[in-house]
Amino acid sequence: MIGIRRVVAVVALALALGAAVGTPGASAKAEAAWADDFFSICVPDPAGCYAYTYGSVVWGNRTATINGTVANEYTSGYVTAYFEAYAGSTKIASTTRTVSSGTRGFQFGLGDPDRVGGFDRTKITVCWHGTDSSKVCSAPVHLWRD
């Protein structure tokens, strides 16, 4: 039979170790419970995909991290990818990434870290801008935080 003092000592030791070590996950970084989204968007052209953007959206609590590439494989003009953050129907942030020729990688945060609830949708559009002020754009792609 185990004595009461031994039980008290074991419980005290367990409590002391728990306080020193912490509970599982207590010190772990809180992570979003939303799946990442991926995108691949081309400017429409019957000859193929020569102006495009692709990448991922890593959803956070109030912001998202956008990683990817924007490309212009045409011999003229430039390509711009447009990124917009929405909370419902309210646009809360936007930014662009542009390349004159070749490809350009990017990584940036989108959203408002002070907005309670963050945002729930990213709208992405890519456009080729010609040297004669012409402009051809993809249909917008909407990615939802889910």
Structure explained in plain terms:
The strands form two sheets. Strands 4, 5, 7, 8 and 9 form a five-stranded antiparallel β-sheet that branches. The protein starts with a helix and ends with a strand. It has one helix at residues 4-21, and strands spanning 37-42, 51-59, 63-72, 78-87, 90-99, 102-111, 121-129, 135-137, 141-144. A hairpin with a 5-residue loop joins strand 7 and strand 8 (135-137). It is 12% helix and 49% strand. By secondary structure, it is mostly beta strands. The protein is built from one helix and nine strands; from the N terminus they run H-E-E-E-E-E-E-E-E-E. The model is unreliable at 1-29 (pLDDT under 50).
CA(first)-CA(last) distance: 55 Å
Instruction: Provide the succession of SSEs.
Output: HEEEEEEEEE
The major beta sheet can be summarized as:
5 strands, antiparallel
Strand content: over 45%
**Structural class label:** mainly beta
Nearest-angstrom radius of gyration?
25 Å
- Percent helix: 10-25%
Number of strands: 9
Low-confidence stretches: 1-29
| General shape | elongated
**How many individual helices?**
1
Mean pLDDT: 84
